[in-house]
Specification:
Blueprint lengths: L11 H15 L4 H7 L4 E10 L5 E12 L5 E8 L4 H17 L5 E8 L7 H15 L8 E5 L5 H15 L23 H17 L7 E5 L3 H14 L2 E7 L2 E9 L1 H11 L9 E3 L11 E4 L18 E3 L8 H10 L2 E3 L1 H4 L2 H15 L5 H26 L3 H20 L4
Parallel strand pairs: 3-4, 3-5, 6-7, 6-10, 10-11, 11-12
Antiparallel strand pairs: 1-2, 2-4, 7-8, 8-9
Bound molecules: nicotinamide-adenine-dinucleotide (NAD).
Amino acid sequence: MTMSEQSPAVNPFETAKRQIDIVADLLHLNGGMREVLKSPKRELTVNFPVRMDDGSFRVYTGYRVQYNMARGPTKGGIRYHPQVTLDEVRALAAWMTWKCAVVNIPYGGAKGGIICDPKHLSLAETERLTRRFASEIAPIIGPEIDIPAPDVYTDSQTMAWIMDTYSMQKGYSVPGVVTGKPISIGGSEGRGEATGRGCSYVIREAAHELGFKVKGASVAVQGFGNAGSVVANLLHDEQGAKIIAVSDSKGGIVNPDGFNPHAVEEHKKKTGSVVGFPGAKAVSNEEILELPCDVLVPAALENQLTKKNADRVRAKIVAEAANGPTLPEADTIFFQKGITVLPDILANAGGVTVSYFEWAQDIQGFFWTLDEVNQRLERVMTTSYADMRKKAKEHQIHNRTAAYVLAIQRVVDAIRIRGFYP
Ligand code: NAD
């Protein structure tokens, strides 16, 4: 049985619902519970005007979907993209529900989006778009209801505008309404590197279980961006791994003897790419996936590992820092070949976990040190890894399905114990 977060050319919400059915079969869930799990609880569509810099107005459409709140307030990013659709937002909100449940943080899942082309908006236009959207969705967001965060083409500045708009309407500052904020207004230490750090912890756990040490192990990273560069740096600095290959959208580099990822980062800062790093050979973004290595970290785009190349993957561990890098057919091949997959909903859940820490700090008004954040993150990631492995062994299934079983079971337990109102 196979599952993946995204398949090409299909409605993502149909994919999300199929995944629920697969797990529902394993858990022997009845028809009513299946319907509950497949139904987004609350959806808001807003159409709103924004004043452009030239004085004209344009109407934009945005969505906020709160998928399931049985386990707590809902959590999920807001994306700005021309191809945003309601069904995509629904699917992403469902996946957030499972991601929060797999790491056992007390949240449901949500997602939001605005249909727009952020590359053609000025900073001032983006600010007005953001503030108006924030006030349109204000009735259904808040620290106790639904807490947005950054996603594709939104960032800490976007979150600062949403926090300010919401706070102006309330008449007092409400930092806990969003996460991924700048530290100066209630952001958390460690949030920036949390996704990569969480991923590095689960790689350590998996290597330990497979009986090899990360120290000296070879690592290839496709996508040397926020998530990928942090995984490379931390595996190198804290666990002594040998980083043998990295890539970005312009291409990749390889050196079987390994290189210092910080020096590659400096090179990328100067030249705009990892390509041309001294002492390394060029490698394409397709080839990097097939290099002999112990750990492969897809950290760029979805749909990278397919039935075409999965057979040629030679890593022991595939750690999905990216969302949806593996197609279902590739999952099956990896399972047959005995390659350990660390599925995205676990491997990149460090980000949402430290978002949860940010919110917890905001509502207490008491902030933690970087060490405290990292220790708590480590605990969450290692416990979740162990929980997932237990399910995998119990049901004789691969890690991705096990992560979904674990997550959906937790949501179902919360729904059942609460019962149905009235
Ligand atoms: P990013 O934009 O910082 O980095 C993406 C990297 O991928 C860049 O280096 C880019 O050059 C490279 N890239 C783009 N196209 C490529 C291609 N065709 N081949 C190889 N590399 C290519 O983004 P990010 O925040 O690091 O996100 C990367 C992935 O991780 C996404 O799938 C994202 O959803 C996932 N993720 C990120 C976070 C987070 O907190 N940053 C959290 C959860 C999941």
